[in-house]
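lol ok so funny story. i was supposed to be doing the assay writeup but got distracted and ended up predicting the structure for this chain instead. priorities right. anyway since i did it might as well share w the group, maybe its usefull for someone
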Amino acid sequence: MSLPGQEDRDPKVAPSAGARDGLGRARGVLVDRCAALGLAGPHGASFRQKSLNNFIQVKGLEHERGEIVDRHERVLATNRPSVNVYVTPAFLPDAQRVLRRLASSVGLGAKATASLSQALSKAVAEHSEGPLLLARGLDAQDLEALERAREEEDLSWEALPILEDQDGSYVAYVDPRHFPSVGLVVSRLAEVMVMDDDARAQLERRVRSARGLERYQDLLVRRDVHPEIEGPLSMEVQLGALPGVTVRRASARAYHYGELASHLLGYVNELSPRDLEDKRELGYRMGDTIGRRGIEAAFEDDLRGTDGKTTVVVDSKGRTQQSLLADSLRADVGTFVAPRPGHRVVLTMDLSLQRAAEERFDGQAGAVVVMEVDTGRILALTSTPSFDPNLLVGSFDPSERRRLDAIKHRRPWRFRAIQDYFAPGSTFKVVTALAALETGAVRPAERVTCPGHYNLGSARFRCWKDHGHGPVDLVHSLDAELRRLLLHPRGAARPRPDRRIRTQAGFRSALADHARLGVAGHHARLRVVRAKPPGGIHARGCGQRFDRTRRGRSDASPNGGGLRRARERREGHGSESCLAGGARGRARPSDHRARGCSGARSRA
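and the output, tada:
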């Protein structure tokens, strides 16, 4: 005879004698372990009840981001101690469950309980101060049941006030200002952390949308909390006024020199939901930081380390437990992985040269690039105006962003050395000379007389030297800022530079890996500009007086050979001036002729 359900059991999978012995030994080990913990002794019932209220939570240990140093290993970007605030949805108070528990103790129906729950949620959202009626006409037996429920749910008398009615019965209320709920905790947290209504509502949506195991994962509320907020917040958490909220020590990015080399270094910021879609497979989580722009973005994989993890025992409110049982549970799980810091990145940039370049650039907007000729290493790379990357770490002050955005004509967020167009000026004469030599349009020893100007159609290009340089050859024309020989060698038409020579010289190629640097890059190609903002460069070309002549305004030989017109815009802060002086007001065409400025321009 077999029990129901045993007739279909496969006899081949019945436990063998060895398996039964193994199960017996495992059962004995389990009994011994329970005895060691006291679960089988006189306090076993108490320990079992405590175990039901404890959770083993895996917490992440943040890694240290790698440092960025200059060529002499002087630290440019490092980490400093900070405080982050997290909230765990599973440990936030469940107002609906508590209300159902209280309602059942006084015999309140399901419909009335649902109405009370809705009223409580509305009162918390509207910050109502009036109490809500729970039940009326309660006797001593009801009070006893209600008191047991209050103690089990760890409710204060302020959350559940009870008054005596005129007929001798009792009336129980629910006070939204003290009754534990998700809305109340979020509202208190927003008040302590000085969060606006939009941020508070967004946090509450994130908490309520957590499902399944996600409810036990920490949600980052704010990174790098200000010290003035940290003190009151830690006090509220310790007093139990903010269940489910955790204040955790961490590290934040620090840039020792503020605005110095800010465009080159970039900054780090919190991962956005769109970024998370692409980075989740790489181990990123919501709340992690990622490099934005500059070196921080280009070397993100090297600077970023690996988070560690550890286990803690917490109670139903998320409070860490320190006891014999908690230590034993942690020992059984045994999960600890130490965080691994990121790599150190050494730049070719020289801090002293970088500081000197930024200090000596007295213009409103522009860029400076210092390159080591023999190796091509970049020793300094500046962009003016700049910003302080420390303001973008953690909670960025919106007023500071508005202040920087107010100067639109200067565009402090733009990496001008990488993103802007600059006419090559006399540097392009090398390409023209190579093309002339290769095509046979000129010989190295051939001399051409420079009278101080050159006529091309109705346009006259003037030399910076009014009376001219006299007879000069090709080599001296490169050194003497002379354009006549290269504009019209041997009286022939100006040779168009060969595309291959331009490519070999670096034109039509990206100045840097813009995608890695986190900026929108482009090749050096001229575009037709219909409208420029005040202060934008209004002429893009090669040669002298290109701010006045049609030929000069349209010359795009370093940009592919196409001739296209770029419109001028002189309103606002200064059209343009030499790179050495920056954009400091309106520039007159005569100023360019007097200084012999040859196309290297700063942009406002």
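The two ends are 96 Å apart (CA to CA). The chain has three domains: 58-91+182-345, 95-174, 425-595.
back to the writeup now i swear
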